[in-house]
From TrEMBL:
This is Amino acid/amide ABC transporter ATP-binding protein 2 (HAAT family). It comes from Paraburkholderia unamae. Keywords: Amino-acid transport, ATP-binding, Cell inner membrane, Cell membrane, Membrane, Nucleotide-binding, Transport. Belongs to the ABC transporter superfamily. PANTHER family: HIGH-AFFINITY BRANCHED-CHAIN AMINO ACID TRANSPORT ATP-BINDING PROTEIN LIVF (PTHR43820:SF4). It holds the Pfam family ABC_tran. GO terms for molecular function: ATP binding. InterPro entries: AAA+_ATPase, ABC_transporter-like_ATP-bd, ABC_transporter-like_CS, BCAA_Transport_ATP-bd_LivF, P-loop_NTPase. Residues 22-253 form the ABC transporter domain.
Length: 253
């Protein structure tokens, strides 16, 4: 597989000097009357890959949705590149350089693969450049071959590639990826793993929600484990082996 590495790493355009790419403190979130997140604290350095682990219903997807302003009420602090976003609407959060790839992918079935890629506007912070179609097709040759195919005719793996590629076109440099490996063939999962390593080398910051521990473990710099809307464990890759008994108890890994 070809990867695109010729660009310089992404600059942290628009970010406060020395600020983390993402800093969350005391985050509470609700869906209607349901209180889902209970004081979540986490930080992600620029260029880091962080994985949120936990069982279904632990609050991982809600954390990503809260970052994007897609939950109901939310309180606390969410800083993107040092800029407070807790009161911002979703479109303004996106213009801070945040791209969200939801589990349901959101492919427009009536549009071709290439039309899906061309649809999103540039939303990245000033100075950030989205990937060109040539770069996308170099990273995902399958999409080049299927560029004229309708969204409904793409396989599940191709739809997942398209969903990720679409946010790369926007200029976002903080990527929120929700279960991108779920239900996909091993060869597609390997392609997505190589993509994440390529993006990391180019300076992207990535927060992943993953059930597939074998996929996430070699890619992440740090891990947060969630349970019932709380962060219950946090550790770096160097501590992973020692944390395996804890992960087995919490996740069944």
């Amino acid at each position: 597989m070809n990867t695109v590495t010729e660009r310089e790493p992404l600059a942290a355009a628009g970010a406060a000097e020395g600020a983390n790419a993402l800093e969350i403190a005391g985050l509470q979130a609700w869906y209607g009357e349901s209180h889902i997140l209970h004081g979540v604290d986490l930080s992600v350095a620029r260029g880091e890959v962080v994985t949120l682990l936990g069982r279904n219903g632990a609050g991982r997807t809600t954390t990503l949705r809260a970052i994007m302003g897609l939950t109901g009420r939310r309180t606390g602090s969410i800083r993107v590149g040092g800029r407070e976003t807790i009161q911002m609407p979703t479109y303004r959060i996106a213009h801070c350089g945040v791209g969200y790839c939801p589990e349901e992918r959101g492919i427009f079935s009536s549009l071709s693969c290439e039309e899906n890629l061309l649809l999103p506007p540039h939303i990245g912070v000033k100075g950030a450049q989205g990937m060109s179609l040539d770069e996308i097709y170099s990273m995902f040759p399958n999409l080049a071959e299927r560029r004229h195919s309708q969204g409904t005719r793409l396989s599940g793996g191709e739809q997942q590639m398209l969903a990720v590629a679409r946010i790369l076109r926007t200029g976002a440099n903080l990527l929120l990826l929700d279960e991108i490996s779920e239900g996909l063939a091993p060869v597609i999962v390997q392609t997505l793993a190589r993509m994440i390593l390529t993006l990391k080398a180019r300076g992207y910051t990535i927060v992943m929600v993953e059930q597939n521990f074998r996929f996430a473990a070699p890619l992440a710099d740090r891990f947060y484990v969630m349970e019932h809307g709380h962060i219950v464990e946090r550790f770096g890759i160097a501590e992973l082996e020692g944390k395996m008994p804890v992960l087995h108890d919490l996740l069944g890994v």
